[in-house]
Amino acid sequence: MGGAKRYPSVAVCEGDGFRDGSTHPTRYIVIECKSGATSAAISRSDSDQLSGSINWFISKYDKSCSAAPILIHPSFTFDNQAAPLDAVRIIDRDRLEALNTALKAYAANISASNSMRDQEAVRKQLEHFGLNGNEFVNRYTRRFSKP
Length: 147
Hints:
The protein is an alpha/beta fold and 147 residues long. It has helices spanning 44-60, 93-112, 119-128, 133-140, and strands at residues 9-12, 27-33, 66-72, 89-91, 142-143.
C-alpha cells in the first residue's frame, strides 16, 4: 500500500443523533472490518486498530459528535493482550449473517414495491429491518467478552 492513507469507515447514525434544528448529524458509527480474520479471539492488533480509528474520529469531528466503535470479526472475544474500549460492539459471524439476510430482504422489498425514490417508504423499510440508527447497533452487534 506504500504510503497510502487509510481511513476508517464512518457512517451516520441517524434518529435522535441530530442537533436541535440542524441537519448536521452528531452520532456516528465507526467500523473496522477484519474480513480475513480466522482466529478464535480478537487480537491486540485488531483492538488497537479500532482504538486508532476512534482517535482519528475524535481528531476530525467536534466534541458535539460521538461514535459507536464497531468491529466486524468472526469472534466476539478479545485475547488477553487486547485492551478494547468499553464502548466497542462486535458484529460476529451470527450477527453478520443476520445483517446480510436483512439487507437482502430490504433490497428485495424496496425493489418489489418500486419505492426506491419514496423517502418515507425507504425510511419505513430501514426501520422494519433494523437498519437505522440505534436499532442497527442493538440488533446487529453484541457486547464483547474477555477471557
